[in-house]
Fold each of these.
Amino acid sequence: VAAVGEERLIRKIRQWLGAACPPAPEGIGDDCAVLPVASRLITVDPVGFGRHFDATVPPGWVGAKLLKRNLSDIAAMGGAPTSAVVALTLAPAVSVAWLERFYRGLAAAARKYQVSVVGGDVSEGGAAVFAASLTLLGNPAGKRVVTRSGARIGDYLYVTGVLGGSLASGHHYKFTPRLAEGAWFAGRREVMAMMDLSDGLAKDVHALEPKSAAASLFAAALPARKGASTRAALVDGEDYELLVAVDPGADLWRFESAFARRFPAVRLTRIGQMMRRGRPAPGALVLRDVQGYEHLS
Amino acid sequence: VAAVGEERLIRKIRQWLGAACPPAPEGIGDDCAVLPVASRLITVDPVGFGRHFDATVPPGWVGAKLLKRNLSDIAAMGGAPTSAVVALTLAPAVSVAWLERFYRGLAAAARKYQVSVVGGDVSEGGAAVFAASLTLLGNPAGKRVVTRSGARIGDYLYVTGVLGGSLASGHHYKFTPRLAEGAWFAGRREVMAMMDLSDGLAKDVHALEPKSAAASLFAAALPARKGASTRAALVDGEDYELLVAVDPGADLWRFESAFARRFPAVRLTRIGQMMRRGRPAPGALVLRDVQGYEHLS
């Protein structure tokens, strides 16, 4: 991109985004973008060369994943996405052809999930740098958002889909963010808390634990991906599935069968229960023996 | 930061942000932040080590500037800021002490301008990398936003403050974003278009030119900073002043004196006029002889 210059590069980016980027001031081209719909949910997640992908990965997959991992966060609140902005840090040596395929992949995903890419920024980084950070806005799909903090002792824990082996299977590029499922959960009173799984169930589940509670998970119940071990299902990360806490007073049969009717192709599995800390359910996994991965360590 | 680990680092960041970061889900800690006020304006701008600052700059200044350059974009639409998220790319060698001062500077500016820092992301970059990108939301301060696209042939051009020498004088760290002035301009019917000056007047002014028009600027009229040349006022960049186009049918004396009453400490200078392309006003500067700076070139 070194030979192109900022202004031409931004014109090219608008062209690559195509219908995913509305004309200014709704899209790229003014000091701010003016959103047609005011938004109440916001999240931000990056992809970085060397960390989240390397030269063997098709750039279009990287662009799509950048959007989809943020969509997974919107899904986890019971939200629907509206608009995004993208900040790039680029080495001058990044090729225009690579960048075009990155943006075309992002644009295709944006059209699919009805997200407008309304702005961004391009700045120069050192050698071998490509980092992109996407900020995604959304709104509650229904009447409420579901936070991580509503779970109570006794709540049952459910997870969508299957876990583990995301990197080996390519799931971390191919996944479909659970937007429809998240919106459905938010519309169900028995759902007390929700989050998406990105760092591995064993690590992430702690974020749903209220004070004085700890999750008891059962190895035999874990829906592992084909070829993935129980340990992989607990620690691999990048599952982009939803973990929900459900009121134990609810009619679980009714809840499970309503989900199955609405999402016949998606597994929903009861994997454990919130217990009083220090009083795990008999046979529960000891989570301090396993660890989801930790960034920066 | 290598020794700290992501979870502890995020806890520290929340602590450094203090009152600038509300509790989750309004602030950091859930899959998304839930904004108390839905927002319609969005902008994103970065700071990067080696590009926007170096090791001689106090980290608190860098954090404050990251917010203020985005505030300048909100000001340029006639907006008021609401909330921000910050994405960091860090080398493991960045010290916790440096990062603390960066965040405390950001937090102090956020409190001053009533911005909540509601979320963010930290990811690892290569050696010698520190890049931060801030996405800022806002809403129109009054009934309308002012875009870059409303200017017409004949409009007068005005600029706030003084131009040039921003880097040498330290203005690019010390400036106050023109939020009050931008909101005031948006409330005046005679203001047709507005933008903030970041890449230098000579380059930026083209963004206000409607098709078939070109700006005629007058060297003698340019409000250069003390010690800055006319050329510096045209090309230095990082002025963070507002450039506005004003309806030539308006009562300019009334407009100028109303501004002077409301902002007695801020200069407002008529610097030129939009002319038909190829028909510059006599004595106007020939802007193709000067150039604002261009990123990535």
Amino acid sequence: VPIIETCLSPALLHLYNFTDSIVVVIDVFRATSTIAAALSNGATQIIPVDSVQECIQIGNNTPNSITAGERDGKVAAGLQYGNSPSEYPAHFIKGKTLVLTTTNGTRLLHMASNSKQIITGSFLNLQAVIDYLKASNSNILLACSSWKDRCNIEDTLFAGAVAAGLADTHTHNCDSTRMATQLWQQANKQLDTYIQDTAHWHRLSAYGLQQDMLYCCAINKHNVLVTYNGQALVATT
Amino acid sequence: VPIIETCLSPALLHLYNFTDSIVVVIDVFRATSTIAAALSNGATQIIPVDSVQECIQIGNNTPNSITAGERDGKVAAGLQYGNSPSEYPAHFIKGKTLVLTTTNGTRLLHMASNSKQIITGSFLNLQAVIDYLKASNSNILLACSSWKDRCNIEDTLFAGAVAAGLADTHTHNCDSTRMATQLWQQANKQLDTYIQDTAHWHRLSAYGLQQDMLYCCAINKHNVLVTYNGQALVATT
């Protein structure tokens, strides 16, 4: 029976051997939520990059692309759009390439490159993640982006939601997975309110991003499977 | 109002600034439980050391001392006793110095040396820890020893129990503290059974240590305040 492990912070990733695992990169507020929304709404691909500089450069060299990214809750200087899932409706994003720079999520994509496969997860595409992993017969590492390496609730909850959904096909002996699953059992009936007492909620509320965070809690609203091909994130069916 | 932070693994300790905080070192299974038991039962002091070699050497040079420590669930070669809280009843340990080597706990004592003060915590002395911190008017870092840097449930639960006990005197905006507190709310009515589905329970059960772990769950059985003076752990009143 394949196993699940959960890594609550990128600073703990070195403890896990994931060469034989599918790694699920999780950054609920808001990179992997924005990725699910844009791809579900028809973006051709999303190119994740580390820096604003790189974002501008790749944007200039990529036809039909737009550049996006935030620093401190605002569109970064030199970029066109932000990191809100609601900014990418189909009539805007369909057929385009999104070049996206994020603080946390991009880093994990690179850190997990030595894995069997990388997919990204958020509440917006929870069921697509579960369905894919259920059928995979593969070991899984649920990798939380956290906030500057500090464990956060929203990524942990999502890991718990995935683990709970895999109870019939996977096993585990990982306390982080147990904690995530148990927290999810507390939270899942009232995710919208539960999420409002978290460090990220308090931090991003100061930028007026409450509606954005509630959007990220809309389970299965953009139910697309997102895979990383080493250069870009794409919708996979 | 002073704040609480919780660090779920020594590998995350660098994220926290604790120079102005009391650090509570937590290693429920079993170092800080054994420490509480031995000091509550009258041990003069406990000298924590990193290696078996050092343990033997200090034991040889310390009058009326005994050496203790385990590797892989058995008394380490060259030492006299193990790491079970039940091994140190008053009629045996009273007036003696315990020289103790542990895998995880000792390391954190050294890592946290740049703090305002270090105390140790376990369910056996939960109330003494809470009472002391309540009256301290100080910032607090709850530092979990974890298992080889992987987050574990029993240390996290203890952090949650302490944080819950400080709700009237301290504040926090730390997701690790929130998660710990919420897990404690689930577990505290049935700690004995809750603890039996954890990685440590499964690992140590293979060595026949179930009774030992249940002993560590006896809340306030050895209700002593333990402080670290830089060289030894002592009971403080």
